[in-house]
Structures
1.
Amino acid sequence: MKLERTHKIFNPPVRTLMGPGPSDIHPRVSAALAKPVIGHLDPEFSNLMEDIKDLLRYAFQTKNDVTFPVSAPGSMGMEICFANLVEPGDKVIICRNGVFGNRMEENVKRMRGEAVMVDDEWGRAVDPQKLEEALKANPDAKIVAFVHAETSTGASSDGKTLAALAKQYGCLTIVDTVTSLGGSELRVDEWGLSAVYSGSQKCLSAPPGISPVTFSADAIEKIKNRKTPVQSWFGDINLVLSYWTGSGKRSYHHTAPVNAMYSLHEALLMLAEEGIEKAWQRHKDHHLQLKQGLENLGMQFIVPEAERLSQLNAVTIPEDKNEMKIRSGLLQKYNLEIGAGLGPLAGKIWRIGLMGHSCNQKNVTLCTEALADLLQNA
Amino acid sequence: MKLERTHKIFNPPVRTLMGPGPSDIHPRVSAALAKPVIGHLDPEFSNLMEDIKDLLRYAFQTKNDVTFPVSAPGSMGMEICFANLVEPGDKVIICRNGVFGNRMEENVKRMRGEAVMVDDEWGRAVDPQKLEEALKANPDAKIVAFVHAETSTGASSDGKTLAALAKQYGCLTIVDTVTSLGGSELRVDEWGLSAVYSGSQKCLSAPPGISPVTFSADAIEKIKNRKTPVQSWFGDINLVLSYWTGSGKRSYHHTAPVNAMYSLHEALLMLAEEGIEKAWQRHKDHHLQLKQGLENLGMQFIVPEAERLSQLNAVTIPEDKNEMKIRSGLLQKYNLEIGAGLGPLAGKIWRIGLMGHSCNQKNVTLCTEALADLLQNA
C-alpha cells in the first residue's frame, strides 16, 4: 500500500495572526514547545503541573482547587463542563448571542438535558433582564450558561451581573471565557462563576489544543452527587482529578500532551510577569488605536461601544468591496491573517483579533496600513 | 489575587524514554513543533492536513477515506470510536486481557451499550476460540472490541484472526492500536478492521496529545444510520468530517492543535522515509537484543514468546529487589525512564519500551548496562 501524494518537510509561512485565534506565539513559548519530552508521570512533570495550576488560578482570578488544563481544545473544555454538570432532565437556560450559544444548546441536548434558549441579537451583549425573565419563568432551572466574550461577534457580556442573577435564582453557571481569559477583565471568584472553560490559543498566546478550566466548590458538589455517570470517560472530572490532583498519589488517566503543557506554562508565566490587570489594559489601549484606524477607513463596529471586546474587533466591510479578495490579498501580500464572519455574519463582517502576543503597536499599524492598501488597490 | 508558588522558566531534564510512552522525539520532530503557528483555516494548513491524512493511511495500511488525527490523546480517540459506533442498547463483545479492556467496558457502559466481557489472562494474547464462543452465544452482538497491542502487559493479539471471526458473525470491530501503529505489523484493510484508534506518542514518536483514527466504509455507514445523536459534540464524526474533509469547503469545527500537527506530520514523514515494514523489523531486531540482555540479568518475560510485542517488554523484577528504588535510580543516575506495572501487575513487573525513535542500539545498550549496575548496586 503506497502513498498517494508526494511528501516533503512542511515549512509554514510566517504569518501575523490577527484573526479570531490562534494568535501569534512569543519566541519564548515556541522555544518551550521544542524542549525535550519527559514522561507524563515523571516527578518533574508533576511539579510542572502544580505550577500550571497555580498560574491558571492567577489568570482566572480564583482560588478554586479544581483548576487545570484539559488535554484537548476549547470545544472539549466546553463539553467537559456540560458533561459533568448536566444530568439527564436538567433544565439549562442558555443565553445565546452568537455561534457559541448554539454549540451550548447542542451540548445540553446531547447530555439529555433540557435547553431553554434566551436569545439576544448577534453583536449585542446578553441582556440581564431577559435572563431574569427566563429564570422567573423556569423556577426548576438548574444551570445558566452564557458566553462571556462572543468570538463570533466581538460582544462582551456582563459576567458579574449574569452570574449574580443565576445565583439569586439558585442556579449554577457555565461560562465560556475562551476569548476573554487574559484579554479582558475576568474575576471568577469575585463574580461567583461555577464552571468556566477557556482556550490556550487566544489571549494566552499558547499554541492551540489545550483548554484551561476551573470549577467552584458548589460545581464540584453537584458533580459528586450525580445520580448518573458522566457520559464521557475522557472528560469525567472524577477520573481526571485523580491525575491532575498531584500531591504524590497521582494515578494514570491519559497521557498528557507534555510539550503543549510546557508552552502553556511559559505563556502563563509571561502573563504573570506582565500582571493580569496590565494585560487587560494593553488589550484596551491597542483596541482604541485600531478602532481609530479602522474607522478612518470607513469601517463600522457591529457591537455598540459599551459592549465591545478589545481583543476581537468585528467590523463591517466597506460597500462594493470583495471581502474574500481582500482577505486573500492580506494573506498573500502581507502574510497577515484576519478572520471572516461566521454563520449569518459570513461575508458581512471581518473579525480582527488583537489577542495576547498579537496585541501590539506593530500589528495595529501593519493591519491598518495593509487594509488601507488593499481597500484602495485590490 | 496572588500566586501561591514561586515560578520560573521550566527546563526539563534530558531523559531517555524507555517506558510505555511517550517515547523519545527525533530532533526533526522537535524542530517541527516550534515552527511558526498559522491559522487552522489557512490554505497552507488545509494542504498539510491532506498530507497528514495520506501519511496516516500509509501508516495504518488502509485506503479508508475517513482517516485523520483526533485533536486529543489516545483515550479520546478510543472514546470517539465507541461514541460513534455504539448506540444505546447495542451489544458489544469486549476481549479483555489488560487495563485497556477495562477502559473499553467503561466506554460501552457510558454509551449505554451492553458490554459482554471475554476474559483472558493478563500477559496473554486474546484467545480467538473464546471470542468465537462468545459470538455464538451472543448472536445479537453488533461490535467486537479488542486491543491489538496491550500496553499494560506487552501482549500482541492476532488482529487478523479476531477481525475475521467478528466479520463471520456479522460484527464490526473497534481496535486499539495505540502501541502497535508503526511498531509492529498492522494492516487495517487486509485484516478488515472497522474502527481503529492509536496515539501519537508511542511508535510514531511524535509528542503526546494526538490520536490517529481510521474508519472503514461499513463503520461510517453504521454511524450515518444512527437513530440517536452521538453523545459527544466534540467527537461526533459527522461534524469532525466537515472540518477534516478538506477539498475546499472545510467548515469550522474546533481549533486544531496546529503545532502538534506539524510534529505529527514530520514523524509520519520519517516513518514513510524509513518504510513501514522496515520500521516493524527494526522494532523486532532491537527487541531481540534487549531480550538477550534482560534475560542475562535474570529477568523473565511475562508474555509467551509467540505473543510478545517487540515495542513493550514486560519483565519480572528479580526477587528481593526494590523495584521503586531501582526505577528511581535509573531516572536519577542515568536519566533513563522505564515503566512500572499497572493494576494487578503494579510492583510485579517493569515495562520497558522500545518505541519509535527510542528503539535503537544505543538505548538497548544503555538500558541493559544501567539495569545491571543498579540491580547490583542499588
2.
Amino acid sequence: MVEPIKIGICGLGTVGGSAFQLLTRNAHLVEAQVGRPILVTHIGTRRNNSNCSVDDTIIHRDIFTIAAEPTIDILIETIGGCGTARELVEYAIDNGKHVVTANKALIAEHGNALFERARTKGVSIVYEAAVAGGIPIIKAVREGLAGNRIEWLAGIINGTANFILSEMQSKGRTFDEVLSEAQQLGYAEADPSFDLEGIDAAHKLAILASTAFGIPLQFDKVFTQGISTIELQDITYARELGYCIKHLGIARRTDHGIELRVHPTLLPCSHLLANINGVMNAVLVAGDAAGPTLYCGAGAGGKATASAVVADTIDVARSLANGIENKVPYLAFHHPYLSDEQILPIEEVESGFYLRMKALDKPGVLAAITQILSDTGISVEAVIQKEPKQNENSVPLILLTACTHEGRLIDAVTTIESLTSVSGSVVHMRVELLSK
Amino acid sequence: MVEPIKIGICGLGTVGGSAFQLLTRNAHLVEAQVGRPILVTHIGTRRNNSNCSVDDTIIHRDIFTIAAEPTIDILIETIGGCGTARELVEYAIDNGKHVVTANKALIAEHGNALFERARTKGVSIVYEAAVAGGIPIIKAVREGLAGNRIEWLAGIINGTANFILSEMQSKGRTFDEVLSEAQQLGYAEADPSFDLEGIDAAHKLAILASTAFGIPLQFDKVFTQGISTIELQDITYARELGYCIKHLGIARRTDHGIELRVHPTLLPCSHLLANINGVMNAVLVAGDAAGPTLYCGAGAGGKATASAVVADTIDVARSLANGIENKVPYLAFHHPYLSDEQILPIEEVESGFYLRMKALDKPGVLAAITQILSDTGISVEAVIQKEPKQNENSVPLILLTACTHEGRLIDAVTTIESLTSVSGSVVHMRVELLSK
C-alpha cells in the first residue's frame, strides 16, 4: 500500500469538525486527485465535537504536541484568533510542517512574518479558507488570473453584513430588528462588531489585495467603515435613485497608489453585485486581459469553509506526492518581487457620493448647498427634495455627486454643515459603478 | 541572469496574437509570479498578425519546426480544429514539450489519447482556455473545489447563443433578426452552426464534466440541441410563467448514471444564471461541501482567452521553475482512478417540461390532453390557454409539467400529437430549477 500523507487538525469546532468529516467522507475522491491517500491521524482539541465520529484518530488535548508530531506532514489550524493560533502555526513551521489555515485575522495581521518564517523552513502556508468560504477566490486571483495585471477588485465578503442589508432592503426592516433576527438564526455572533464594523471584511480585503497586486499584507492601512449607522431611509432614497447599498471591500490600483477600503457603497441596482443577497459572498475581479470576472457562493459556514480547507490540503498534498514544495508563492508573487507601492490615504480616493441632510424648506437653501459643491469643484448628478411633514419646517434633501476626491467632498460637507439652514450632520456614502 | 523559460506559439490569430501581446506586456508580472522570466522565442504562423509587433522573435512558416525546436520548453497551440492542430500537439508531446492549448474540439474529441501520450512522455497538457474564455473554471473545478464530491454543474458556455437569446428576450426580436446583427457585430461566425447547434457548448461540457466527475472525455455521448428552433412566442410564454429560456450545458450525477446534455432550458427568472445576458458566460458548480458556486465573465474574445492561455503557461512554468512536472492530473483525477460510470441516455433523464401546442378551441380538449399526461404519470403545474385570434378556431395551449422521465414525456407527446383536436407537433423544452 502507498504510504498516506498524514494530517493533524488543531481545533475541532465548526470548521475543523467539518474538514475532518469531509476528508473522511470523500477520502476516495481525495486519493484519486492526489495519487496518494490522505489520512487524518491526529486531532488536537480541548473539547470533543459531537458531530464528529473520530474513530481511531489520536486525540491530544495539547495542540502543540500535534505540531511537533514527527509523522505528520500537514497541520490544519482551525482554532482562530491571533493568540494561541499564532504560536501554534509558528511552532508547526519550526517543526517543518506545511500549514493549512482558515484564519483570516492571523494571515492579515501576521502573514508577512509567518511567510518569511515558512520560506526559511521551505514549507507552505495556504489560506484559501480565510477569504469567502467555499469560493476558491484566492486560487482564482493567485493562479487563474495570473496572466493579468489586476486593476481592481470589489467584493461582498462578509455574509452577516450582507444578510442584514439585504433584509433591510427587501423587507423595509430596521438595522436593529434584522440584527436580532440574524443573531437568533446564528448568522451573527453575540458580539457582532467584528462583522458589522468591517474588521472581518478588512482582514479579507487585505489578503485579496496582496495576492492581486503583489504587495505585502497591510491590514492596518485598510480604511474601514461598518454598516451599523445605515438608516432605512438611506436605503429607500438610494433605491429611488436606482441604487442599492452594499457593504463592499474595494482594492484598486491608481496612478497615485493603491486604494484599500471597506465601507457601505451605493451600486446601481442592475449591477451583478447588487443582486447578491442574504449570506452569499461575491468577488468581482477586473484584469487587463480577462476583464471583470465574478466569483460567488457561500462565504461562511462549516461545510463551505471546510471545502476550502480540504482543497488547500489537496494542493499541498499534490506537491508532497511529487516530492516537492508548493510551486505557488505565498502571495502569488515571489518575495523579491513584492512591490512597495503605497496605499492611498482615504482623502485621496475618488468616487461619487450620496449626501443626505436635513435642510430648511425655504427658497435659496438648495441653491446655497449646490453653490458650495460647485465652488469646491463637485458636480451634482441628482437631487431629491422631499415634501415637509406636518409641523416640520425642515425636509430631507438628498444629492448624488459626480466622481470627486474624498478630501474635497469632506471640505464641502463641513461648509454645508455650517449653514444655519442645515441642521445636524450630513450623511455621506460612496457611490461606485464598478463597470469596467 | 536567470535562464528564461522558453515558449513557442503556433498560430498567431486572435488568440495566439493576444497571448503573445499579454506575455510581452506583462512580462515583469509574469516573472514575479514564476520566479523566472518567460520568453516567447519562436512563433509559427503562415500569416503575419498586424496587431503584433513580434520584434526579434523567430518566425517559422512551418509550425512543426517549432514543436521540434530543442530550446523550447512550452508550446502554445492556438491554431484550432482537429486536423493540423492534433498532429502538431502529438509531435510536440513526442518532442517532450509541455502543451498549452485553447482548442476545445481537440481536447473534447481527442483528449483521452493525447493525455495518454503526454503521460508516457511526462509532459503537461493544459487547456483552461478551452472552456469559458477568461473565467478560470477548469482551475476552480479541478483544484479549487477538489475537496468536494461535485453533484452537478450547469453553464451558459456559448456567448453567441446567449447573446441571441438575450436579445430575443429583452427586445422581442426574432432569431433571424438577431442572428444577422450578431454576424455584423462579429459575435457570430459566417457559418454559425457550431455555436447555434450546441456543438461548441457540448465540447466544453464534455471537458467540464470529466474534470468534475473524474470520467474520461465522452463528447460523443453529450445530448445536444441548439437554439435555432426557438420561437419568440416561446420566450414570451415562458416569461408569463416566470421563466427565462437559456441555452445550458448540464452535467449531473444520478444514481443511475451521469447526465450530459446541452439544450434550451427554462429557468426561473430570479435565478442567477437567468440574469447572465449578452456574450457573457457563467458556470454554476454544486459541490457537496461548498454548495453552489458561480463563476462568470467574458467567455470569448482574444484578450479573455489569452488570459487563460497565459495563466496555464504560468502554471506549467511555475512547475518547471521548480524542476518538476505539473502536479495536477490532466483530468483532476489520476489515471488509474478514472471512473467508468455510464452516461445516462437522454430518455432516462428527469426534468420538468414546457409544452406548447395548437389545439382546437372547444370544450374537452384541455381535459383530453391533461388526461393523457395524467395517464402517463405526469403532473401538470401550470396552464396558459390563449384566446383565439379572429378567424382561427385553434389556440396556443401551454403547459408546464412537474419533474418526469424524458422517455415518458415523449410517449405522452406522441399520444397528444395523434389527437385530432391538436394540429402540428408539440413543442417541448426542459425546465430546470438548479436550486440545490
